[in-house]
Amino acid sequence: MADKVIYATYDDEQVLLKGAKDLVSKGIYIRDVYSPFPIHGLDPIIGVKHTRIAITAFIYGCIGLLLAVFGMWFFMIQDWPMNIGGKPNFTLIDNLPAFVPISFEFTVLLAAHGMALTYFLRNWTLPGVKARNPYPETTDDKFVMELHLHDNHDQSEAELEEMLKATGTTRIEAR
Amino acid sequence: MDFIFTNKSKITFAIFMAIGLIALIVGMPHDAESNTRFWANILVNGFFFFGISLGTLFFLALQYATEASYLTVLKRVFEGISQYMWVGAITLIIFFAACSLHWNHIYHWMDPAATHEFVIEGTIDSAHPEYTNDATVEGAIENHHYDSIIAGKTAYLNQGFFWLRTIAYLAVWLFFVNLFRKRSLKEDQEGGTKIHFKNMVYSAIFLVFFAYTSSTASWDWLMSIDTHWFSTLFGWYVFSGIWVSAMITIVLLTLYLKSKGYLEVVNKSHMHDITKWMFAISFLWSYLWFSQFMLIWYSNIPEEVTYYMTRIEHYRGLFFGVFAVNFIMPMVILMSRDSKRSIGYALVVGIVIFIGHWLDVFLMVMPGTVGSHWHFGFLEIGTFIGFLGLFLFTVFRSLAKAPLVVKNHPFLDESKHLHI
């Protein structure tokens, strides 16, 4: 059986929030919610996990730091010792204060770019990719809840639509 | 629920103060060297704890000026800490008076021998030689202790102007401590938004005054110890130090009060926010510490590097160790969201960097005063414990005087529902 998706549209995010709470308490699994802005308190209700992007940012930052220190050690000390202002140029540790600003910049550069690219790749929002938003008006003033029949085996399509109607939705569409 | 200053805590803090008093009596000056060590200790502790109350007052004013709602439930804690400023100001004034009376030579520029070109020959062997800048005075001969660099700074660094500035800073800061406290208690009774909106104006005036005077006070009180040396970043560095010390104290005190069952309205989100402040201002402090260090290290100009030469020569491990701990420990441990919300992590990091920032003040004062003869003896540790007892006694006493959570503040309800 092919999966069927039910979209329920709401005019108000508080109505959606209350509806989501009711549905989840009845054991319904809500796959996703489309909204023009973040709805405060929605994530724990529909079971969205905490983002792990901070962890990736930390890892990218560490890579940036290591690359910067390694690069400066190689360019400024190992390959061709540079004498700038008569500063000691034979060991990394003697020159470390001069390298700190660049290490910092490179750490931030890699952390920020790595984080942004990871975000775009993970969400697959790349240039030329078609938008996967079922209702463009969710970028304006509408809120849409997405339910999959596969996720909710205990209920039939009609039952689900009945439950959604009780939460005050303005439109229900199954695709 | 009102805070009760129990007899048990009173006795504990009294014991702390007694330890401090014994340390001060044992370390009482009996020769020139212990003179400097004794008074330098008073300055380290006097300034550190005064700085905590000043930093807290600044943070409170910042809340008013930005109309921030999220920490309204903690307002009484801020007020309680800033009330220590009265006691802190007295300790500082005792110290400055001792300097003015030449009981110590912590501020070289206060010594007339350094700032006068000539000395009257007849008085040179007496206890108080007479100095003059006028070569035509009878009996005037060249003064060997004359220091042209210090003499060149007498327009700013002279006793009259120094006292004028010090009294002005303390008077205005204390005025605002009192003003905010009084208005806050009045708001509890009256309610409404009139007091709230007027507080915004007062705090803006305070912040402008504080922006200038926090810098000049740090020049007067701390930078002028190394009279030859100067750094334009010093004021900011000291300011970030007192700010982060204030945030650490707020975190630790809030954790203590919560552990005793007070401040039930303070939830995990509030803890997250104040720990985040502690985390963030640690970075500000590290940034300014390093900026000052790196620019001076790079340009390598003799008159500038003297400050760091003394520190690296005689305090090497401590000097770099304090920086490393105060920077790396909050960064690594408090970076994640979960650790900011956990009591254990905030407590451990808070206690360690509290001592770390006390050592930072120690490193601002000691190299220019006792130099290579520094110790960590009973005097240093005892004085710290004594001042800690005095600080906590004052803070707890003022916490007990008013309800621990404000009433009738327009943002109170919003703050209670903080959720991040």
UniProtKB/TrEMBL annotation, chain A:
Q: Which residues cross the membrane?
A: 53-76, 96-121
Looking up InterPro entries in the UniProt record yields: ActD (IPR021776)
Listed A to Z, the keywords are: Membrane, Transmembrane, Transmembrane helix
| Name assigned to this protein | DUF3341 domain-containing protein
The reply to whether GTP-binding figures as a keyword in the UniProt entry is: no
